[in-house]
Design a protein that fits this description.
This protein is an alpha/beta fold and 240 residues long. Helix content is 29%, strand content 20%. It has 2 domains: 2-139 and 186-229, Rossmann fold; 144-184, no CATH class. Helix 4 (112-125) links the parallel strand 4 and strand 5. Helix 5 crosses helix 6.
Length: 240
């Protein structure tokens, strides 16, 4: 069971569900980029240079990418710059880039208040953004790869991680370390994504009819996908 879930969730395997979703997601991103005048500067918040090296985008002379990550990244040519930084406090002036791109990062930055800080930084440093995050309600938790893991009590989740490796997360040597690992992932509900990015369109990614993840994108002009939901002006921010 675990091996099957790893195979389905491994984005490095082109045949996996994760890889197919990522390919379709990036095709949407490229479609949005095609609407912009050149040159284009992109800030990837929490990404890796490895990701961009595997794509055709960096080969275009008129598109530059700056990757910001807590961990130092290997250099990847003149058009892919790297910088160590925190998504909650980006080291750039307002409007420094044309676009901010972020994939499966905002669920890792801490509390809902921390996630709000990241969202504000994303919208501050560029007039357009494209932010993806897994859905809280997808039945298989995408990091620990345990069905329903996110619905279990916090201490139960930590205790399971002490007993064995779970998905992509190594077995914890202590309950303290297990708690840190479990606490490092805070999946979002759709209402919370809307609260973080109130002016965004929400693109919904599905597997077998189930919502796998959300892409919040804003600042773009032109038609959108039929699965994109326009901002709702009814109701307020959700509680976390």
């Amino acid at each position: 069971m675990t091996r099957m879930l790893l195979a389905l969730a491994d984005h490095r395997n082109d045949a996996s569900w994760a890889a197919r979703l990522r390919q379709r997601r990036f095709a949407l991103f490229l479609d949005l980029l095609a609407r912009l005048p050149r040159p284009i500067s992109v800030c990837d918040v929490g990404g890796t240079t490895e990701f961009w090296r595997g794509l055709s985008l960096p080969d275009e002379d008129d598109v530059s990418v700056t990757v910001v990550n807590l961990e130092r990244q290997q250099p990847a040519g003149e058009r892919i710059q790297t910088l160590v930084g925190d998504a909650r406090e980006l080291p750039f002036d307002a409007g420094s880039f044309d676009v901010v791109y972020s994939n499966s990062v905002i669920e890792h930055v801490g509390t809902f208040a921390d996630q709000r800080r990241m969202a504000r930084e994303v919208m501050r440093v560029a007039p357009r953004y494209f932010v993806q995050t897994p859905s809280y309600f997808f039945p298989i938790e995408p990091h620990f790869l345990v069905p329903g893991f996110q619905f279990l009590p916090f201490e139960v989740r930590a205790a399971l991680l002490v007993r064995r490796r779970l998905g992509w997360v190594a077995r914890a040597e202590s309950m303290e370390r297990a708690r840190e690992e479990v606490r490092s992932v805070r999946l979002l509900r759709r209402s919370q994504v809307r609260a973080l990015f109130p002016d965004a369109k929400i693109h919904v990614e599905k597997i077998l009819g189930l919502t796998k993840s959300y892409v919040a994108y804003g600042g773009w002009e032109g038609p959108t996908s039929p699965t994109d939901a326009p901002p709702s002006r009814r109701g307020g921010a959700s509680r976390s």
